[in-house]
Amino acid sequence: MTVGLLVTCMNDALFPDTGRAVVTLLRRLGVEVDFPAAQTCCGQPMVNTGYLDEAVPLLRRHLEAFAGYEAVVVPSGSCAGSVRHQHRLVAERSGDPGLVRAVEQAAPVYELSEYLVDVLGVVDVGAYFPHRVTYHPTCHSLRMLGVGDRPTRLLQAVRGLRLVELPAATECCGFGGTFAVKNSETSIAMGADKARHVRESGAEVLVAGDNSCLTHIGGLLSRERSGVRVMHLAEVLAATEPVIEEAPREADRTSAGSAALTAGGAR
Asked: Where do the Cysteine-rich domain residues begin and end (predicted)?
């Protein structure tokens, strides 16, 4: 199976390690992954602020970039929700029946945890992450996509990981894209509440499926010098136990030393 990776603008510009982690993880599970270089923004910022007409060229570009794939995987509940629920609205508003048909016939789009659990049918992905972790369910993944407990089931299967409950987990972190700009004071207050709950959980690492939310919460945690790291779900699931090479036995070291001395004498 070959899937197309919609890496998202946020990850492409600021968090390339998340995209790399998705590729590493999926290839480990036997999935062939392509990164269509022609991809750009999915159009969500325009749609969310009411500029649906301006999103039409981005919709056309998305359809062209991901044509021919069996599925599209997105490490973002926000962007996956946009493609699944907003693209049809944009196409219908354009008045172009061909564009509407293209959206209807496009490859299915899955948020990462959906693809792993529902399509591949796996929960234990062979990950190792020996840390105390709490999980923030982002608004779009929770409410628009309904990913439910898929991410936490994946985390619970990670060797060495201890998953701790996040108080008031389903409350919004306050980012909301342009909401954070237009309503900055409210956004900061909501983010401060979320950061406080993260600290109360006693976690070493806060995990979520959207780097946009992690940027907001992580910034507040950093300013508070909390010591809590933030990581995308894909990076945790891609982590494996380091391979420690066994030290050579004494006899091996002696043999190797003798060989080296012999070689040195030959010169």
From this structure: 4-83, 133-217
CA nearest neighbour of 79 among 123, 36, 38, 48:
48
Residue 214 CA to residue 242 CA, distance in Å, equals 26
Map tokens 């529902």 to a residue.
118
The residue range of the domain holding 26 is 2-119
pLDDT digits (tens, 9 = 90+) for 204-257: 999 999 999 999 999 999 999 999 999 999 999 999 988 766 655 655 544 444
50 and 80 both lie in a single domain: yes
CA–CA dist 114, 74 (Å, integer): 10
Please give the angle made by the CA atoms of 203, 163 and 136, to the nearest 5 degrees: 70
Residue 266 lies in a domain: no
Angle at 42 between CA 41 and CA 48, to 5 degrees: 105
Q: Does residue 140 share a domain with residue 229?
A: yes
| Residues ≥6 apart with Cβ < 8 Å to 253 | none
CATH number for the domain including 155? 3.40.50
Residue among 145, 220, 233, 236 at smallest CA distance from 175: 220
Rounded to two decimals, what is the model's pTM? 0.88
